[in-house]
Amino acid sequence: MLPLVIDLDGTLINSDMLHESTVGMLRQQPLAILKIPLWLVAGKAALKRQLSQRSGFDAATLPYNEKLISWLRQQHAEGRRLILCTASDQTVADAIALHLGLFDEVIASDGKTNLAGKKKADALTTRFGEKGFDYAGNSVEDLAVWEKARRAIVVNASPALQSEAEAFVKIEEIFEPPVKGLGIWRKALRVHQWMKNLLLFVPLFAAHRMSEAGAWFELGLAFVAFSLCASAVYVANDLLDLESDRKHPRKSTRPFAAGRLPIWQGVLVTPFLLLSSLGLASLVTGHFLIWLLGYFFLTCLYSFKLKQVVLVDCLMLAVLYTLRIVAGAAAMEMTLSFWLLAFSGFIFLSLAFVKRFAELQVQLLHGKHKAHGRGYFTDDAPLIQILGVVAGYSAALVLALYLNSSDVLRLYTAPAWIWGCVPVMLFWISWVWLQAHRGQMHDDPLVFAFKDKASLLAGAAFALFLILGTVGWLQ
Predict the structure, then answer these.
(1) Is it the case that residue 77 has pLDDT exceeding 90?
(2) Which of 53, 120, 303, 306 is at 20 to 30 A from 145, Cα to Cα?
(3) What is the rounded distance in angstroms from the CA atom of residue 81 to the CA atom of residue 5?
């Protein structure tokens, strides 16, 4: 039985180790990215060696092609010799081979020779002879290797590539690529998270300026700009958080973490989204662009460092939520009241603690002692719960105090009706924390609120009391 040689990038794993190493280094040593042009001067193999030494990747978390691995285990059990041959660096290939425990031999780039395409074909022909091996690959570069192989195992390849391979080699097995469509990008861009940007419209309603068509237009532009900016941040954050997401029970299914979208596409789409966002933001009146840039800067700061700092991460999340309301006010060229800022700060701080508490609950259920990529231990969950409930009830207290202010008398015809908002708010805060305690909370509490029936009913009741207070019905 002839030996079976298996490619790594895009074949054994649904990713590319050059891209994985680059984002891994960016996460570990951000400034080292400036050295890449210098390393590339010495050749692609040298670049891969430098990146592999700085990325600190975990072979156990990579998005492996499970169908292929299952078939390889069967081949190995039948006595077939398996060789991992890749253009990735030798240190990377050795770590992966050690983790899988499948391969009898590993052939890889050595820091001087980039073992891809014709160079890989020549190395395998020298080692096993022409037609003395079968080869599993996935890309156009593998055509040179298949030309020297006896049979081909085609993995994750397009129909066009399959046809090219069939022209000069017999195909033994075909492993079809996963189906991709707009749905996978909708998930990567987190389009469902755009609902959070409806917070931009809060100042419009709080100031009772719903009849102003110009304000709606400005906020509409602001909403799209903020959503594109948020998607750019989500994609960048997913690329930097690949390893942490892969260790998380739910986040491991995200498109980049699962290898359903290539990393290079994420790297390209991020600046495109950001530039589109800034272009739209420049059309919005007032200081909206400045606040959007502030949001982007703080989000980057959060993604790179602050999300790893205990408690500061939750405070920063609350600030980022509140910034949406501030940016909405800037788009309308209005000044926010102290009451709205205080209420927003406390309620969003509570929701930030809900988010972190829910994550700790998931980690605890899976027997973890520490949340990966965060500064929390699962034992911290009860304290986080207390802090979050206190913050939520503080928001209700601010709302109650607001009802005694002169602003209420000025904005509402029948202020007594607004008191109904207080018990509604107390119910909703308690309900959210009850669901989190039961392990039924979404990764994002605001997304949960938009989908949960009890939350929607509470929101409707809250709005009803505001309307009654405004029009003075039954007064």
Answers:
(1) yes
(2) 53
(3) 8
Once rounded to an integer, what is the mean pLDDT over residues 292-314?
A: 89
Residue written as token pair 């609120």? 449
Which strands form 134-137's sheet, in the order they lie side by side?
A: 105-109, 82-89, 4-6, 134-137, 151-155, 170-175
Helix (H) or strand (E) holding 263: helix 263-281
Which long-range contacts (C-beta less than 8 Å, at least 24 apart) are formed by 467-470?
468/414, 468/417, 468/420, 469/412, 469/413, 469/414, 469/415, 469/416, 469/417, 469/418, 470/208, 470/411, 470/412, 470/413, 470/414
Sign of CA dihedral 30, 35, 37, 42: negative
What is the value of pTM for the model shown? Answer: 0.84
Write the CA distances from 32 to 54, 207, 220, 304, 328, integer angstroms.
9, 49, 40, 15, 37
Reduced to 3 states (helix: H, G, I; strand: E, B; else coil), residue 84 is strand
Residue among 85, 32, 9, 20 nearest 57 (CA):
20
Q: Higher-confidence residue: 288 or 450? A: 288
Give dist(CA 357, CA 443) in Å, integer.
Answer: 10
